[in-house]
Amino acid sequence: MTTPPFYAGPRNAASWTLAGLGVVGATLGILGVVSPERQRRLSGFARPAEGDHTPAVLGSSSFAAIGEGGAYLLGAARGWPGFPAYVIARRTLMAAGLTGLAITGRAPRAFLHAAAWEALGAAAIAGALWLDRRNPARPA
Q1: What is the 3-state secondary structure (H, E, C) of 46-110?
Q2: How many CB atoms are closer than 10 A to CB 2?
């Protein structure tokens, strides 16, 4: 069986971490599409009133999570060298933004959980990159 030309496969800790986070993110996105009411409760939003667009926003964020999970999987599969650093920066920015929204009262306190998820993901990828650079001869 030959390997498709677009697939290099995860070869190091950073790629495996990206792949794991991609699977979790896509899975949570799918769960949000399948059960939007559960996602609404987990996000800390009140039950929407008539004409409220919260369900549409939550639905679009679920599809965004599916797309982002797919991007992580593709980045891990292709082994793009700069992709982990980009993801660390993006997740750090998201963590800061979500924290800011929550502490200023512009978003529910439950956004702090999402901020923590983003920060922990950035830290996990950074730690995996550090591990990879510390011991480049380590087999994946």
Answers
A1: CCCCCCCCHHHHHHHHHHHHHHHHHHHHHHHHHCCCCHHHHHHHHHHHHHHHHHHHHHCCCCCCC
A2: 4
Q: Which of 129, 134, 131, 99 is nearest to 115 (CA)?
A: 99
Angstrom CA distances, 8 to 70, 73, 75, stand at 15, 11, 10
| Confidence (pLDDT) at 4 | 55
Rg (CA), the chain: 17
The model's confidence at residue 25, banded by pLDDT at 50, 70 and 90, is very high
Tell me the residue ranges of DSSP E strands in 1-140.
none
Mean pLDDT of all residues belonging to the chain = 87
CA distance 82 to 129: 11
Cα–Cα distance, 102 to 97 (Å, whole number): 9
φ/ψ of residue 98, rounded to 5:
-65, -40
